[in-house]
Structure formats: C-alpha cells, structure tokens
Amino acid sequence: MSAREEVLAAVRAALVGVVPAPDPPRAPQVRPPRDVVAHFAERVADYRAVVERCARDELEARVAAALAPASTVVVPPGLDLAVAGAVEDAGLAARELEEFEAVVTRARVGIAETGTIVLDHGPGQGRRALTLVPDRHVCVVAAGQVVLDVADALAVLDPRRPQTWVSGPSATSDIELERVEGVHGPRTLHVIVVDDAQPLD
Amino acid sequence: MRVALLVTCLNDALRPGTGQAVVSLLRRLGVDVDFPLAQTCCGQPLVNTGYLDEAVPLVRSFVRTFESHDAVVVPSGSCAGSVRHQHALVARRAGDPGLATAVEEVSSRVHELSELLVDVLGVTDVGAYYPHTVTYHPTCHSLRMLGVGDRPRRLLEAVRGLRLVDLPAAEECCGFGGTFALKNADTSVAMGFDKVRHVRGTGAEVLVAGDTSCLTHLGGMLTRQRAGVRVAHLAQVLASTEGDVWGEPA
Amino acid sequence: MGGAGVTGTFVGMPTFPVAARRALGDAQLRHNLGQATATIRAKRQRLVEEVDAAVPTSAADPQGLGGWEALRRAGAAVKEAALRSLPEHLERLEAELVANGATVHWARDAAEACSVVAAVARAHGVREVVKVKSMVTQEIGLNEALEAEGVAAWETDLAELIVQLDEDLPSHILVPAIHRNRAEVREIFLRRMKEVGRAAPDGLGDEPAALAAAARSHLREKFLSARMAVSGANFAVAETGTLVVVESEGNGRMCLTLPEVLVSVVGIEKVVPTWEQLDPMLRLLPRSSTGERMNPYTSTWSGTAAGDGPGEVHVVLLDNGRTRALADEVGRQALRCIRCSACLNVCPVYERTGGHAYGSVYPGPIGAILNPLLNGVGHDDQVDSLPYASTLCGACFEVCPVRIDIPSVLVDQRAQVVDAHRGRRRSGEAVVMRLAAATLADEGRLGFAERFTGVGLRAARRGAGWPGLRRWTGARDLPRPPRESFRAWWRRTGGGTR
Predict the structure, then answer these.
(1) Do residue B169 and residue B115 come from a single domain?
(2) Range with the poorest average pLDDT among B235-249, C42-56, C177-191, C260-274
(3) Which CATH class is domain A35-194?
(4) Do chains B and A touch (3 or more CB pairs under 8 A)?
(5) DSSP character at residue B144
(6) Contact at 8 Å (CB) between C420 and C54?
(7) Residue C332 contacts residue C326 (beta carbons within 8 Å)
(8) Distance separating alpha carbons of residues C211 and C200, to the nearest angstrom
C-alpha cells in the first residue's frame, strides 16, 4: 500500500464506530462598540503602531508626512495615490527591495476588535514580499473597510488569495517574555485611516 | 434530615478529629448523622495511580454501602470528586451496566461538606466561634473538579472571632497529588515549599483547607519547619464554638 | 531526537522524576521559568476577562457560559468535528491543494516525512534551507535528517535560533529558549553566530532589543539567499486547501514568501473543515499563547499564487502516531491541541521542572499525554513516567482553549501504563496497590489494619530514614498517631462524645 492509502486506512480504522460530531456552534460575537473605526484605531495603537485618521483630501499630505524620514520608497501597482519620488514595484528581487526604506500600500480589511489589517495582495497592496522587506510600512485603510471582528473579516476575504494579517509591527517575546518590537518584518507600522466609505464589494 | 458520613480512609485512620467535627457540626444543625460501618475507601488512590481493575470492588462496596441514603457528606473535595467523576469510569471498566447505573444514582447524592451546608442545608452561618487568624487554601479538586466556588469562604467569613487573610497564589496546587508525593517526591516538595512560604507570609496562625490529604502534606512541612502555623480542616473550624474549640490533638 | 518511526522524545532521557530532580536543583532555571510563566499567565488572564466583558450575555451566549467559555467551546467543537470526520476532510484538503497547484505527499512516520523533504532539497540542489518555527519538524527530527544528507537547516525563530546555536534542546512549545535569560543569550550569540554566519556585533549588550537586532542582521543574509524553506502549519483548511501560519517576528513571512520552493509538513490533525471555522481558532490561539489579541503576523496561502511567493509548493501530510492517538477513545481529544502552550504556563509542575525534564519536544501537561498517545506505552520507562508527572490539579484543563480534559486523559494513560505491565514481573508498587485494594475492599480487614496505624506511624516516625519512606519524611513530618481510628471511636461511642 502507498503511504496515502495506508494513512487513510489507519484513520478510518481509528474511527470505526465513532459518530460524526454535530455542526459546531457559532462562536460568540462581541458587542459592537459605538464607533467601530475609533475602536479599530485604539486597538491598532495598542500594538505600538502609529495610527492616525484623516479626511480624503488630506491623505496624500499625511502619507508624505508618514514617510518623512525615509528617502527611498516603493509602492505597488494600483495604489491610486501620488507618492513623490516613489518607485513602483515591477517584480523587484528581494535584494533590491532591501534597498528601500519604506513601502506604502492599501489593505483589504481592518478588524477592529483585534486591531488587525488584512492584505489580500490585490491591487494597491502589492505582492507579499513588498510589505515585508522594507523597514517601514505605511498602510492606508478606508474607514469603510473596517469590520468588527474576525468572523466578519473571514466572510469578506477570499481564501484562494494569499493573505497577510498584520497586527502591529513585527515583535518577539522570546527573551524573558519581554516584548520587543521589530525583528524581521517592518519595525515601524504606520496606519492611516481615511474617513471615506469605500465599499467592501 | 438524615445524612450518611463518608469519612474517607485518610480521616478514618489518621485524622479522626475531622470526622468527629463533621458529626458535631451537623448534629448542632439538627441533622441526623449516620456512619455506615461497611465503608472503606472511595478508591481514588488506586484510580489515580492507574489500578482500575483493583478499584472495581471498592466502587461496588461503596455503592452497596451508600445506595439507601438520601444524602452523603464527604469532608474532602478530592474524595467527592473521585466519587462523582471517577466511579463512572471504573464502572465502565468493569463492563457492568448495572453498576454504572447505580454509580450514577448514588454519586448524584454525594456532597462535599461546604456544598451540603450551603446548597442542601441552606446555611452559611453555622454558629461557629473560632478566635484565630486563618488563611484558606482552596484545594484543587474542590476548586476545579467540583467547582465549590466561594462556599468555603462564605462559611469562614460567617465564623465569629475568625479573621480571614488572603493567601497569595491560593489557587496553585500544594504539590500533594496522591502518589505523586512519592513518585515525584522532589517536585512535590518544591511545590509544597512554595505554598508553605506563602502561608507563612500571611501571618496566619491556622491554615484551613477542606482536604486532609493536602493538610497532611502541608502540615508535615509546617511542623518540620517549626513554622508556628497549625493546620485545621474546614470542619474543625466550623464545629468550634465558645468553650469547645476543635483542633488536632496536641 | 526522534529517529525512524518514533516520535519527538529525546533519546536516552531519564524518567521524569530523575530529570525533574536535576532540574529542581538549577536555581537560575527556576527563576527564569517562574518569571516568564507568571508574566504570560497574567497577560492571558486579562484577555480572557476582556472577552467575557465584550460578549453580551443574552444573545451571543444564551447558556450564560461567559464569552471566553463559549468561545473555547466553539473552538473545541470545530476541532472535534474535524477529527471525527477526518478521512473526508483529508481527501478534500488533498484535492483542493492539488487543484491550487501544490504537490501533496503522505508520510506514515518521521523517517518517511524527512525523506520527502530531503528529496525536494536534492531535486533543487540546495545545501541550505530556512525554517519557520514548527513543532512537527522538531517531532520528526528533520534538522538532523537533513544534516545527514548534507543540507543545513537554519532555524529562524529567535528562540529556536538560540536553542540551535547552543546545540541545546527546546523546553517550551511557544518559547523554546524560555529556560535562558538575557545574559545567557548574549553569551551564546557572541560565541556562536560568527561560526555559522554573520557575527554578533562587538559590544553586544544584553537588552532584549539589542539581542533581537543581532538576530535580525544575522538571519537577513540567510533569508535573502535561501532558495528553499520548510514550515509547519497551524491550521489546514480542507474546503479551500489553505494553510495558515501564525507567528510574531516576520521570520515566517520571510520563509513563506522569499524562497522559490516551500515544503510544509502538516500533521493530519491540523485540519479545520471550513474557512469560516477559522473564526474561533484565530481568536483563541494568540490570546492563549502569547497573551495578545492577535499575533503580529498570520500568513495564509492556498497552493501557489502567480507572481507572488514560491512557485513550487509541497505539503507533507503526516501520521507518525496520530492515528494511534485517534483510535484512543479517551485520548483522542489530545489531537484537538493547537500548540498554544497555555497548559505549560499554568502547570505548577512545569513551572518548577522546566521542559527538558519531559524529555520531548512536547513538554508540560500536553506532552505528558501526547507523548504516550503518539508512542504507545509499555515499552519505554521514560514515556511511561510522563502520565505520572502531574498532581491532577486541573489547571491545564481550565485554560485549554480547545477544552482538552488533560487530567482525565492522564488518569486513563496511567491505567494503560499499569495494564501494559500486567502479567510481567511485579513491581513493588503493584504489590502495594493490590495489597491496599484487598484491605480497602472490606471494612473488617480495614478495621483490623487500622489497629496498627499507631504502631506503624510511631515506628515510622522513629525510623524516618528508611528508604522509600524518606520520600515523604525528607521534608515533611509524619502525622502524630491518633488514639483510635474514627471507626473505632464510632463503635465505642456511637458518635456521641469525643
């Protein structure tokens, strides 16, 4: 027998006489806060990320200010935002990405309860490496993209697309369980929430 | 009301004062206490060490001894937990559906002491007097297996003259663990030392708990360390009145 | 570490009581562990209370369980449902993965899984692979197997890096170097980094931030040059063929994204039936594990994606004892484990002995059941000692996010250990237990024996140095013998007077 057949046969043998379980109960949902976007901003900030809210017409200035110390910036195709001096990614090698100090992207969903931004690497978000190698990630989230909790995010996300869920800057607690921000991923996460509704499809 | 006492083998042989305190306390509350002499041990030491076959006759004997009683009181969270959670396991092992049914029936009428007082008799002030500073260790099986919650605390808080001080890290295990104390003696002692350190730090005169097993382990350390802290079972505190303070024989 | 067909136990380890005795003597270890576990317990507890407060009692939680309890019941139910219908979920997972462009391999045991990974490395001519922290690749001893094939496997998680550089063994599921403090980590980095890659900077201090920065620059070169990565997976979604890796540092993202080839070794129990069912799991795991609402990074991928990440994706579905555990009626629930390590952090035994005493990559309460379940009992004293490495205090069950009743499984495993030894040469313990059972089964015999309690205790108190007895009397006095047993008192007085 092949390994496949043998493993599956062993699984079946182990379950002889075992009845399938009923459908799991729906996980409990949290009470919606008065202002879900404010809740999102607070929870992102808890991770020691930089968070700010702005109006649509302020966005480009805010992005420029967020990038201020960085002199080399890379952006994904489809960002739909003017970033002065930025280079658009056209399949840069990892070593080339390493030369950029910052990256600006959009996101797919923001999760308020956990302070998470989810990238599904569609237009304006870039491929996965783009938001990983540069040390500063400026991420623009539309207020209308913010959902309450994990279940709401899963409902709008397409599992066939690769995803990166980001909750604050990269961190470790591996030495004496003392949290330190910034190991391999971007050491600075700067989230700008734009107060205009952008439909979630 | 008529209640049968399951005194537990440990109290029977080593700490008869615990059982005597339960009898005195319940009689004071107007309860008719019976002690079925056929009782032996709930079987927990065997089950927890893995000797399930050997525990089968004990469970049979337990069921025979207590099946005709409306309520059974146990001055031990651990033994009550064993009856309520492990006897079914042993019955299943015996492959005897009759025994399993009987076990389910009897074990539903078994109450740990604080449960009997608060839930069945509906009292928290048992009229006790105990003029001492006391700290309470909520033993693991009372706390987590039975879920007695704050019942023992409420009973102690109602005792006149008693000053209850908080025990730091109270919910952490004392390290007794039945045969664990022998099989893993070093770890057991390390855990016991930490518990005793917390007890001594409270400044209490008396360490109170609802399980003689944990008290034997901790009491043995306290006397070895000449700590000046004595141990008392919850039943002994609650049985005490003015002029009749219960304690271990000097 | 595990060779062919065995699982995750360190070869030649002494039994738990012996290893624990050694560990208890290490004051630094005790201090490091006490500090670390207390910190993480407090963080987790705050979040449990936050969830309780955030879930309205009426609608979302009709039974009044509390938000956290309702959440962990949902998590337990998802994993239980997956396990009970595992064959169909595994076949679905395989089909979806293949449809998404992944290559699926099956492995009966550790050796088979290791040889699959080695074959992929060979096919691409790579001499180095980078690794995402994964329990399963430790369980199968992958690094050693690859080394034997001339392939160097670099651990990229900070704690794993510390353990690997020091040629040490992991001692915790989440933080494998929990037994090391900052000064020890600094020393390891200064001594070893230069031998295997970029050296630690001169004048390296012992602040965790500086040590993390040293790891960042040491590993950056490896990430940029690696052509192949190896990972595990926290979850494998059957209906979509999606693998999920939950991490903190970004080393996982580096490995999952930059190399050309990715091999993920996935235990067959990692299956979650549907994408929506990730909901309770992703809320339970980080809160139980690192005490965060969400971990910094979670990556999900379903096979290959054009122009993004590895162009060649392999998945190895591994048994290695899991079907043995699955067949165990009581122990089956251990396969719900999501490796959060909450049970380690609350375990009073683990807190004092540390993880090495368990002699396995899976230490603590979950290790005390998982190792015997995966390996079977009755043929290795070390494995047989593990179910006894617990006081059955129940703290582990209380915190487990998927409600594994570890104390009940421990008791059942103890029974299996005893049963496995029935009919062999009788141990002293078995003789004592059978004698006790015979005495306790009959009140006449018990009453007779109790008459000698006083005599026995008095003799024992005098002869406290007897071997065996010393295990009790080494640190504790024996109780004073009572004048008479309760039984004798009752017979004499009818319960009348003291």
Answers:
(1) no
(2) B235-249
(3) alpha beta
(4) no
(5) I
(6) no
(7) yes
(8) 9
The amino acid that residue C117 corresponds to is V
Judged against a pLDDT cut of 70, whether residue C4 lies above it is answered with: no
Flag whether residue C93 sits within 8 Å of chain A, measured between CB atoms.
Answer: no
Distance CA(C425)–CA(B10), nearest Å, equals: 30
Residue C311: exposure state from Cβ atoms within 10 A (0-12, 13-18, ≥19):
middle
Contact state of C81 with A169 under an 8 Å Cβ cutoff: no
Same domain, B167 and B233: yes
A3 pLDDT higher than 70:
yes
Q: What would the 3-class secondary structure string for chain A be?
A: CCHHHHHHHHHHHHCCCCCCCCCCCCCCCCCCCCCHHHHHHHHHHCCCCEEEEECHHHHHHHHHHHHCCCCCEEECCCCCCCCCCCEECCCCCHHHHCCCCEEEEECCEEECCCCEEEECCCCCCCCHHHHCCCCEEEEEEEHHHEECCHHHHHHHCCCCCCEEEECCCCEECCCCCCCEECCCCCCEEEEEEECCCCCCC
Q: Which residue of C has its CA nearest to A179?
A: C208
Q: pLDDT tens digit string along C256-277?
A: 999 999 999 999 999 999 999 9
Beta carbons of C266 and C318 less than 8 angstroms apart: yes
Q: A98: how many CB neighbours lie within 10 A of its CB?
A: 14
Statement to judge: residues B82 and B28 lie in one domain: yes
Give the C-alpha separation, A57 to C126, whole Å: 51
For B208-221, what is each residue's pLDDT tens digit? 999 999 999 999 99
What is the ipTM for the molecules in this complex?
0.96
The residue of chain C nearest to residue B226, with distances taken between CA atoms, is C477
Residue of C nearest to B59 (CA): C441
Give the whole-angstrom CA distance, residue C84 versus residue B118.
Answer: 41
User: What is the model's pLDDT at position C434?
Assistant: 85
The pairing of strands C297-301 and A163-166 is antiparallel
Cα–Cα distance between B104 and B91 in angstroms, integer? 10
Does residue B249 lie within any of the structural domains?
Answer: no
User: Mutate which of C283, C332, C341, C351 to test chain A, going by most A C-beta atoms within 10 A?
Assistant: C283
Non-local (6+) Cβ contacts of C59 within 8 A are none
C393 vs B179: CB contact, 8 Å cut-off?
A: no
What is the span of the domain harbouring residue B58?
Answer: 2-120
B15, B48, B61: residue with CB nearest C411: B48
The three-class DSSP label of residue B159 is: coil
B241: β partners: B244
Average pLDDT, chain C: 93
Query: Kind and range of the H or E element at B88?
Result: helix B87-94
For residues C121 and C132, what is the distance between their CA atoms, to the nearest angstrom?
Answer: 16
| Cβ contact C83:C332 at 8 Å | yes
Q: What is the C-alpha to C-alpha distance for residues C58 and C117, in angstroms, rounded to an integer?
A: 51
Q: Identify the residue with better confidence: C432 or B195.
A: B195
The answer to whether the CB atoms of C178 and A177 lie below 8 A apart is yes
- Domain spans, chain A: 35-194
CB contact under 8 A, C305 and A129: no
* Domain endpoint, select from B74, B94, B120: B120
Query: Which CATH number covers residue B230?
Result: 3.40.50
How far apart are the C-alpha atoms of A107 and A117, rounded to whole Å?
7
User: Which domains, and CATH codes, for chain C?
Assistant: 16-322 (3.40.50.10420), 428-493 (no CATH)
Contact of B86 with B67, CB cutoff 8 Å? no
What is the average per-residue pLDDT within B101-124? 97
Structure tokens at C215: 């790891």
Task: Return all residues near B85 (Cβ < 8 A) that are at least 6 apart.
Answer: B145, C408
Structure token digits, residue C143: 């690094």
- CB-CB: which of C81, C257, C279 is closest to A27? C279
Any chains having at least 3 CB pairs less than 8 A from chain B are C
